[in-house]
């Protein structure tokens, strides 16, 4: 069973992924793949150096926040960058989905629907929060200005649309525990075995 997990920025994908991993499910993390392909394919960094140079490189190191500031505010620049990086991410994601050994595997991808990766999984799950919760959590977590946070949210497919398109929706506006319970229900409906209460207790302790 291949599960495609998606959502908006700071809607709670990683929180859900971590919980699924604690149940022993393999996670393929799209954000991690985006970092890995930069190492695997030097031509991507070469493209970024040629296009933006010192604007996004500090002492030879890619400044991800600076790149984000540019591409999340300019649709054309975002598309040009995604045209370079996404084929590699998609290729890696497909390889890992094929190699996955367990009976359940999760592909955690912000761009699951945008990039057609929903076609590579059996079922899709959107982690949803209302806009006010999303922006509050984003600003609490990341060192962004309000306008940077708004432009990141606006550069994504509306979370409402991701909610409509998914087979299952997790509402992550309540407590983490409420979210884990919703995941348990979804897993049950997909034929995952019994989930013991201590898994949730264990996660609660880790978070304290
Ligand atoms: C632009 C980059 C360098 C900014 O890095 P930064 O560390 O500041 O942010 P981070 O990677 O944590 O992303 C923040 C959030 O935006 C989402 N996101 C990433 N890229 C995009 C995009 N092109 N469009 C919409 N959302 C995106 C991420 O999944 C995450 O939810 C980076 O996000 C990137 O390389 N993105 C392009 C490819 C990608 O990550 N795709 C997601 C995997 S499917
Ligand atoms: N139910 C919750 N209650 C309170 N805080 C939460 C809850 N779920 C997530 N958070 C917090 O909100 C922030 C965003 O969550 P998380 O990092 O899981 O989102 P994400 O969708 O993976 O984000 P991104 O794609 O931007 O990496 C984090 O700081 C996380 O600790």
Q: Any chance you could write out the topology, listing elements then pairs?
A:
Elements: E1 2-7, H1 13-22, E2 26-29, H2 30-40, H3 42-52, E3 57-58, E4 61-62, H4 64-71, H5 75-99, E5 105-108, E6 123-128, H6 131-141, H7 146-154, H8 159-165, E7 168-171, H9 176-189, H10 197-207
Parallel strand pairs: 1-5, 1-6, 2-5, 6-7
Antiparallel strand pairs: 3-4
The structure holds dephospho coenzyme A and adenosine-5'-triphosphate.
InterPro entries: Depp_CoAkinase (IPR001977), P-loop_NTPase (IPR027417)
Family: Belongs to the CoaE family.
Function: Catalyzes the phosphorylation of the 3'-hydroxyl group of dephosphocoenzyme A to form coenzyme A.
Structural overview:
The chain is α/β, with parallel strands linked by helices and 208 residues long. It is 56% helix and 13% strand. β3 and β4 (61-62) form a beta hairpin. The model has no long low-confidence stretch (mean pLDDT 94). Dephospho coenzyme A (COD) binds at residues 9, 30-31, 34, 64-65, 67-68, 71, 78, 82, 85, 89, 109-111, 155-156. Adenosine-5'-triphosphate binds next to α1, α6 and α9.
Give a short summary of the structure.
This protein has 208 residues and is an alpha/beta fold. The protein has helices at residues 13-22, 30-40, 42-52, 64-71, 75-99, 131-141, 146-154, 159-165, 176-189, 197-207; strands spanning 2-7, 26-29, 57-58, 61-62, 105-108, 123-128, 168-171. The site of adenosine-5'-triphosphate (ATP) has 15 residues, from helix 1, helix 6 and helix 9.
**CATH architecture descriptor:** 3-Layer(aba) Sandwich
Top-tier CATH class: Alpha Beta
Question: What summary fits the major beta sheet?
Answer: 5 strands, parallel
Number of strands: 7
The percentage helix is 55-70%
């Amino acid at each position: 069973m291949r599960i495609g997990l998606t959502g908006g920025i700071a809607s709670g994908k990683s929180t859900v992924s971590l919980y699924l991993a604690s149940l022993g499910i393999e996670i393929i993390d799209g954000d991690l793949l985006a970092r890995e392909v930069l190492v695997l394919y030097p031509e991507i960094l070469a493209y970024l150096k040629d296009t933006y140079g010192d604007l996004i490189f500090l002492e030879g190191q890619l400044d991800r926040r600076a790149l984000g500031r540019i591409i999340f505010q300019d649709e054309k620049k975002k598309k040009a960058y995604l045209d370079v990086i996404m084929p590699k991410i998609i290729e890696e994601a497909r390889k890992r989905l094929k190699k996955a050994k367990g009976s359940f595997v999760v592909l955690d991808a912000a761009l699951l629907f945008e990039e057609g990766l929903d076609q590579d999984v059996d079922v899709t799950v959107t982690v949803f929060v209302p806009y006010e919760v999303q922006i509050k959590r984003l600003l609490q977590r990341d060192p962004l200005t309000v306008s940077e946070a708004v432009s990141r949210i606006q550069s994504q497919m509306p979370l409402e649309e991701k909610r409509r398109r998914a087979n299952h929706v997790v509402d992550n506006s309540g407590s983490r525990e409420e979210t884990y319970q919703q995941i348990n229900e979804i897993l049950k409906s997909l034929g995952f075995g019994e989930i013991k209460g201590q898994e949730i207790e264990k996660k609660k302790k880790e978070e304290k």
